[in-house]
Each structure stands twice: as C-alpha cells, then as structure tokens.
Write a structure and sequence with these properties.
Blueprint (H helix, E strand, L loop, with lengths): L12 H9 L5 H8 L34 E7 L12 H10 L2 E8 L2 H13 L8 E5 H10 L32 E14 H4 L18 E4 L2 H11 L9 H16 L3 E5 L3 H7 L4 E5 H7 L6 E4 L5 E10 L6 H11 L2 H11 L8 H5 L16 H5 L1 E2 L6 H15 L2
Parallel strand pairs: 1-2, 1-3, 5-6, 5-7, 9-10
Antiparallel strand pairs: 3-9, 4-7, 4-8, 4-9
Helix pairs in contact: 2-15, 7-8, 8-15
C-alpha cells in the first residue's frame, strides 16, 4: 500500500501566517477559527463537491429525504477503496440494507467543515448531510451547541462492540451522540538511525542530545497534552492554568533551540530528510509509512500519550436519521470493521475486529497501533472538553508560545 496522508492534520502553517499578515483576519478571529482543532485548513482537493466553496456563509449539501437514502461526509481517504476507485464496504452496506449512499470527502479539517455550516446549524436549518465524522473536541462543541441528533440505540445494537476504553469520554459519557469511526494515538515518532537508541519517554523530546532536531505538532490538543503528561498531569482533568503553564514550557523549549519547529503533516518529511530526529507523531502515519521508511519508529511514551477519535455523528435535522444509525450498526460488525482497518491502518474501535482481520492479513492482528493491548489503552488519555472561554484562553496561550 502506498503511504496515505494523515487524515486529520492538513493545515499549512506558512499559508496561515500569510493570511494573518495580509490582515484578512485579525489575531482574535484566527484564534476563534482555530478553536479546538488547533489548526486552520486553508484549502485542499477534497472540498465537498456538491457544496462549492467553503466561505463559511452557509451552504446546503444535496441530502436526500427518501427512505432509502443516506448522505455521508467524511475525511479524505478515510474509508476502504479498491483499485477502481470504488468503496467495497459501502457497496456491501447498500446491498445488505437497500439504502443508497451519497458519499463525499468534504471534511478537510474540523474548523473548515464547521465554518461551512455554522450559520445554518445555528439557525436550526438542515444542511443536507445526515452523518459526518468529526474529532473529539468538535463533537464536544457540537453537543454543547445542540447541533446533533441523539442516537436511537435500539437501532445500533452492534454499538455493544465498542472497545471499553472509548465507551465513556467526558464530552459524551453515555455515547448518546457519537460513536467512534477510527481512533489514533499521538506519541513520538523517530528515526532510529538518527537517535541511535530506542525512544521511550516524553522527556526525550527535551534531551539536549537532540537539540534542534525535535518537532512538535501544530495542534494544541496534541502538543499541550504531551507536555502536561510530561509534567505528570492528566490532560482530562488538568486546569486551564495547567494548560497555559504547558504552553509556557513550549515557549522556553523553542527559545532555547531545543525544538526546531512546529509541524503539520510535514513532520514525516522532516524526519526522512534528517531535519528531525524525533517528533510528536500520529500512530496511523507511522504504520502507513514504515514500508518506505524502515528506520521510522513510533513510541508509546512511558508517561502516557493521547488517544483521539474521529466520531460518527448525526447532524440535527438529518433527513435520514434511521439510515445513519443503520450505517453505524453496519460498521460495528467485526468483519466490516476489520476490512476498514486493514485499509486505513488506524486503531479499530470495534471488539472482534482483531480476530476478523486475520483472514485479511494475519500480521495486522499483531500491530499494536491498530489493535492496542489493554495495557496500552490504560495509558492513553482523552483531552478534556473546554467551555468557549476556556478554549480561547488555551488557544491564545499556545499560539503565543509557538509564534503564531
């Protein structure tokens, strides 16, 4: 399989800085737009084709109201695709259920997607999309604002297959509004040819041996979390003051020259070119790129690491709510979840998928980044939910620390 781009971080820091410099948005507007994702998406090939541009002015996707229709909007390359460009599991879903799916890849980033539809959502208008996949922080925001439909659990009995570690996140403790699509870990990626040793701790990021060869991620929800864990604090319960203090530590590490820069997807390029020896990294990226970069490693740091999830959610006013629940139920069958995981290479959130994937590729069943052990999951941390005011405080601190 060729390496796939990260499905969660597609922002361009250089483009973002240019936008700020042009005075098209002021600093406070920027911080509000960054919000929980910590990064702004400024363009990309996977705009929702039926919707046109993403100017945030409100636009409606062509959702169907028929009993056999379903409109799903997802991240790019976040579902199985065959050599002819077809989606095998969607074809199976349509055959089994009789539901006709309109599938698009319009989620370029959480903020970009939210910006397209915010006005309509706030006005209580249907946006035409039935189901989409957004990340934890933005699901928390959507719940807080009342923009989601509550899941009828009687229609999703296979939700009982959700792995234990993801069953009760703070933002949706009973999973009334969300169900994980795929999960990922934020830990440490490194080139063992450069480090000369295995990396095991978050504190290795601050080892003077790697000064000037360390990368951090441009999402505050990734980077601040790892610095909090480095200090022995739980990011799920840490105070806003703790988050701000972590930002201060990052500022000092940048000023001292320990940290080379902040990165989006390009941290992988920097590791390959030798600009970086060690960097914060996403688990799925490492799995997808190890074949072409055999010295690339991923570490679950001893102090802990972040687990994040892109969640299936049903949009308020969805015309095909029951069909969206049928989609959720279908993808929580272990064999279907295994087929999906074998292509995406992110963590499968469905119990039984590990056993089912053996028929596809036995080696994948032993990959801890796709099927982590209970010990690994016990050290994984979910980021806490913030109020709007808290979120702005933390984002401002992080932006100031990294020079945005």
């Amino acid at each position: 399989m060729s390496a796939m781009p990260n499905r969660r971080r597609r922002g361009s820091r250089d483009a973002l800085l240019a936008l700020l410099a042009s005075n098209q948005i002021d600093r406070r507007q920027f911080l509000k737009r960054v919000g929980a994702s910590g990064v702004l998406m400024l363009g990309g090939p996977a705009l929702l084709a039926a919707c046109g541009g993403g100017d945030g002015g409100g636009t409606t996707a062509p959702g169907g109201g028929e009993s056999n229709g379903l409109y799903v909007d997802n991240w790019i390359e976040y579902i199985d695709v065959d050599d002819d460009g077809n989606f095998p599991t969607i074809a199976k879903f349509e055959e089994v259920t009789g539901i006709s799916v309109t599938y698009t890849e319009g989620v370029n980033s959480n903020e970009d997607w939210f910006g397209k539809y915010q006005q309509q959502l706030a006005a209580g208008q249907a946006i035409g999309i039935d189901l989409t996949m957004l990340t934890d922080h933005f699901v928390a925001k959507m719940i807080r604002l009342g923009y989601l439909e509550q899941i009828d659990k009687a229609n999703v009995p296979n939700a009982a297959n959700l792995v234990a570690g993801l069953q009760s996140p703070g933002f949706d403790p009973n999973r009334d509004y969300s169900l994980p699509w795929q999960s990922f870990f934020t830990g440490i990626g490194y080139d063992i040819d450069q480090t000369g040793r295995e990396i095991t701790k978050l504190s290795d990021l601050l080892d003077p041996e790697f000064a000037g060869k360390v990368g951090i991620l441009e999402g505050y929800d990734d980077t601040l979390v790892l610095f909090l864990l480095m200090d022995g604090k739980d990011p799920g319960t840490a105070s806003v003051e703790d988050y701000v203090a972590a930002a201060d530590q990052i500022r000092e590490a940048i000023a001292s020259g320990q940290i080379r820069d902040i990165y989006g997807n390009d941290y992988l390029d920097a590791l390959q070119t030798g600009d970086l020896a060690i960097s914060m990294a996403y688990s799925g990226d490492v799995v997808a790129n190890q074949a072409g970069f055999p010295s690339l490693r991923f570490a679950f740091p001893e102090e802990g690491f972040r687990i994040g999830t892109d969640n299936m959610i049903i949009i308020k006013g969805a015309a095909n709510k029951a069909n969206a629940e049928a989609w959720m139920n279908f993808y929580y069958q272990p064999d279907v979840a295994a087929e999906l995981a074998a292509y995406i290479l992110y963590m499968a959130p469905v119990e039984g998928a590990k056993e089912a994937i053996v028929a596809i590729d036995p080696a994948l069943a032993e990959e801890p980044l796709i099927f982590p052990s209970s010990e690994i999951l016990a050290s994984a941390h979910i980021v806490r939910a913030f109020t709007e005011e808290e979120e702005l405080t933390v984002t401002e601190a992080f932006a100031a620390a990294v020079g945005l």
